[in-house]
Write a structure and sequence with these properties.
homodimer; Rossmann fold; 2 domains; seven-stranded mixed beta sheet; elongated; binds nicotinamide-adenine-dinucleotide
Chain lengths: 208, 208
């Protein structure tokens, strides 16, 4: 069973506590938080205790302290050192997208196997040969890899990029089943799920 | 307040009811469903009543009937007629991605303003001039638009594509604030949120 509260629930707590804070409330119970968000009070208590927030029996939590704690939890820590492998259509679209150019994402290196791309810079970020990944990942202390390579070469890219042991997490877009070293977190993204959600909501509106 | 149950909750009900069905359960209460998923029983009842499932007081719901109903709800209806505007890096990456080539997504038309793309076919789908969108959207009865154009021309693309009145929903990737005709559902996607989630989960693991 997953013990960590989902980021979605934490964002909801954050928003709700901000409202409570702004409306002048000083104390709030897990039941009140649960009622406002349709969670069970026990789920709220479990989530908050995960962050060391125990609450006072019969009283609850101090709104300002809880809000500040969650605010801190949501704040991304130091700048995160990221590399991207596969400077193709999707890779380039991500690098050019406004939100990825935010200062908190520090793209330090790109990797590709196409000689036409190796040695070039994309938005000021140098593109290296995948063969040099072990030494570059180590030199740049890269913690996160964004994987936008085709399915057939995805495992190779993962093996090369994780060889130096610096990578803690991979954001994977390729439709490949990957084998990762122990301790590396894999997050796979499938944008077609968003299309599926839209079609689902359109179906509902028709049913009304 | 959003009255529709989120697709995420419905998928959870679906999975849980399947388990109940397979373990031979015939009846289940909203409290049991809620306890298993950490939702309030009242939330479960509200969600299910949205689909016309009222349940019997003191008894609950028939597992097989409820499961079949939700199964039907989750099944995507007829093939959905889709157009994509902006055949650039992101647009092409989506068209080439395995999951978007599923038979249930019927991409009927592409639109662009680049003369080098107009008149060509991408994965067998013809690309038209955005100026012809009103007549093409009407002829092909397009219900969903995928918008992968730059922010500065996004509103123009929306205006042209919705002029014929066939579009019911837009899956928007551009970082633009859009004005839509009444009744058109807008779903905006920001892939950088996935990177943010990964960084957040990595931060947690460090805190353990
Ligand atoms: N998850 C999603 O929602 C989603 C959406 C679109 C595309 N995709 C996937 O993203 C991937 C890339 O799609 P695309 O359209 O950008 O492809 P593309 O062919 O345009 O780009 C692939 C790039 O990766 C490079 N490459 C190949 N093998 C490599 C390796 N081992 N190491 C480093 N670089 C390597 C190629 O030289 C090329 O530059 C595909 O697997 C596609 O299915 C996923
Ligand atoms: N939401 C996300 O997570 C995400 C991720 C990556 C990119 N993006 C966004 O997607 C958009 C496209 O990015 P890209 O890298 O593919 O850009 P691109 O420049 O490679 O492609 C844009 C394409 O749109 C065409 N175009 C321009 N105006 C048009 C119009 N009015 N109607 C039809 N076609 C038009 C261009 O001719 C070109 O073919 C950008 O807004 C970018 O910020 C979003």
């Amino acid at each position: 069973r997953i013990a960590e509260p989902t980021i979605e629930r934490i964002v909801q707590y954050h928003r709700l506590l901000k409202e409570f804070l702004e409306s002048g409330r000083t104390v709030v119970s897990s039941k009140e938080i649960g009622d406002a968000l349709s969670f069970k009070a026990s789920q709220v208590r479990k989530d908050l205790s995960y962050f060391g927030e125990i609450g006072k029996r019969g009283v609850g939590y101090h709104v300002d302290r809880l809000y500040n704690h969650i605010d801190q939890i949501l704040a991304l820590p130091k700048e995160c050192r990221i590399a991207l492998a596969g400077v193709g259509r999707l890779g380039e679209a991500l690098l050019r997208h406004k939100a990825f150019r935010d200062a908190k994402y520090s793209f330090r290196a790109l990797f590709d196997i196409d000689p036409g791309k190796i040695g070039k810079s994309f938005r000021g970020i140098p593109c290296f040969d995948l063969a040099d990944a072990p030494k570059i990942m180590k030199r740049e202390r890269i913690e996160v890899l964004v994987l936008t390579v085709p399915a057939e070469t995805a495992q190779k890219a993962v093996d090369m990029a994780t060889a130096a042991g610096t990578v803690k997490g991979i954001l994977n877009f390729s439709p490949a089943t990957l084998v990762l070293p122990a301790g590396v977190l894999l997050c796979s993204v499938d944008i077609s799920l968003e299309l599926e959600k839209l079609l689902f909501y359109l179906k509902y509106r028709e049913n009304q």
